User: Fold this.
Amino acid sequence: MKIKKIKEILNAELLTDDINTDVEIQAVNCADLMSDVLAFQNKGGLLITGLINIQVLRTAAITDIVAIVFVRGKIPDKAVIDEAKSKNILLLCTKLPMYEACGLLYKEGLKGISE
Amino acid sequence: MNNNSVLFEEDFKIKGWDFTNAGEASLKIKNYLKEVGIAENILKRVAITSYEAEMNIVLYAKEGTINFKVTPKKVLLEVKDRGPGIEDVELAMKEGYSTATEEIRNMGFGAGMGLPNIKKNADMFVIKSEPGKGTKLNIEVYLK
Assistant:
């Protein structure tokens, strides 16, 4: 599923508008604990999280996550957004709670990382 | 060429509780391996073990070092810290066991997955720890 479609489904805002959104997302991981993100294969994936610190980006860069959706209306500060741009990681934010964001994407056919 | 000859070596200094740079050493290691054409699945395992070890220094120790070496056969990481050490290493190797503070958990870490995840991704892993002094990890990931 393309980022454009994910943005639409989640009624999300794109925080990194200068990064190419023509990226195909294969699978989704969802966690607030970065330790748990590191314990799974996330290649080419999307991370849904409520954590907005810089460690989310470093963890994403280590595990080849290409896009992050921040839920519950949380917006990271400028330093995090700037680093995402430098690491070519797409950032989106939605007002939806985590469960609903995951449910909507799953319903539309996006699979989890273990499938 | 001798299988043990070092093709590349770099030392990284890591500071405790320095979140501005936390993870950057491991990203440099990952990028180096990518540039020299190491297979994706291998460089990812190195990156994850290195990042877990680097975050352990940042979260628990005063300071530490990562020595990164590449030989024709493997990638070697020696991670040393000056920190509290681990009282019971066997217990620390159990998934889910953690001594993390609330502050560490708020950063998204401390799930008790770090050391078991290093072991899972490494081909060779040795941990030595002295309470009150620090911890030393030796990690190897084979290139084939």
